[in-house]
Amino acid sequence: MSDLENTILIELLETIADNKFVMGDHLVEIGISGPNLEATLSSVAIAQSELGHARILYNWVYELKNGKVKGKKPEIKEQTGKAFFNTVNTQNWISLIANLFTTNVTSKIILGAISDSPYSTKMITKMVKEQQDNIIYARSWCRQLANDKGRIPIQFQKDFENAKKEAQDWLLSWQNDDQIRHFEIIGDKTNVIELFNEEIGSVFSDQATAYIK
Amino acid sequence: MNYQALKDYDVFTRIQRGESIIQIGSFKAPDDDIATVYAQKIYDEQDWAEMQVVRRDHIIKIKVPEGVFAQKGVK
Asked: Which SUPFAM superfamilies does the UniProt entry name for this protein (chain A) (predicted)?
């Protein structure tokens, strides 16, 4: 792998890892006072999975930077500064759910593309599979908040749009990057924005409002 | 929160092959998709060999015991 390939892959992996790392903390701190017991217990379990995924990605980045090293990898105490602004500034349950959904969809698309590329590893394929549960959880809660009463749907719409816009902009910057396509990190035929919009649109599908009437 | 749409689900698990499948708990969820996630995330204390989640109103009741004080008119 060339230095440039290495740098691009590190940048992608660190952004996803940072989002997962920050989200893992928020899922415990904010999720502990979720709207019901089921949501809270699941939130804490999802936090563990997000932090576990972040650790795997940071370890991979460490190997990309330093080569294969035997023994214990350094402990991660803070993100590298690439986490999304809205994710870092998550303040409450509504923005937590909006950001959990958009960051998980983003990482699903990028890790999915990497798992189809020559850089794929078994753990990435496993991670893509595992985070599907997080997406189902976040999508269901997005639907519940979008169909709730009072000011909740308005606030949710606002937070969701902000989170969506930031993720779209980030994906668009990679979509338009010729180097990535040259190195086959994201295949020529993969339209990441289209994949993202498709997943995001599923929140507001007809089915989404069917059960809350 | 709109709790009206929440449904009851029961969780059944088997600890290992050859053991009986038993009901280990229940929870409320708005649909089957998130019910599968809740079941796995909430009841993750064991590495279950088998786990099933059933919407309670889909269970066909054949025989249901009376309440302990039913004969005294307590419901």
From this structure: Ferritin-like (SSF47240)
Of A19-33, A78-92, A184-198, the least confident: A184-198
Q: Write the ipTM.
A: 0.85
Residue B29 has its nearest CB partner, among A38, A133, A149, at A38
Instruction: Please state, for a pLDDT cut of 90, what percent of chain A lies above it.
Output: 62
Q: Which residues contact A31 (CB under 8 A, 6 or more apart)?
A: A39, A40, A43, A44, A46, A47, A93, A96
Q: Is residue B38 within 8 angstroms of chain A, CB to CB?
A: yes
Beta carbons of A133 and B37 less than 8 Å apart: yes
Class of the B3-58 domain?
alpha beta
Q: CA separation (Å) from A17 to A12, A33, A54, A114?
A: 9, 25, 4, 14
The CB density around residue A81, as the number of other CB atoms within 10 Å, is: 9
Banded pLDDT at B17 (limits 50, 70, 90) = very high
pLDDT of residue A213: 35
Cβ–Cβ below 8 Å for B38 and A38: yes
For each of the domains in chain A, give its residue range(s) and CATH number, in order of start: 3-210 (1.20.1260.10)
Q: How confident is the model at residue A73 (pLDDT cuts 50, 70, 90)?
A: confident
Sign of CA dihedral A191, A17, A104, B46: positive
Q: Which of residues 134-163 of A touch B (CB under 8 A)?
A: 136-137, 139-141, 143-144, 147-149
d(CA A197, CA A165): 11
pLDDT in tens, A45-55: 999 999 999 99
**Residue A210 contacts residue A147 (beta carbons within 8 Å):** no
For chain B, the structural domain boundaries read 3-58
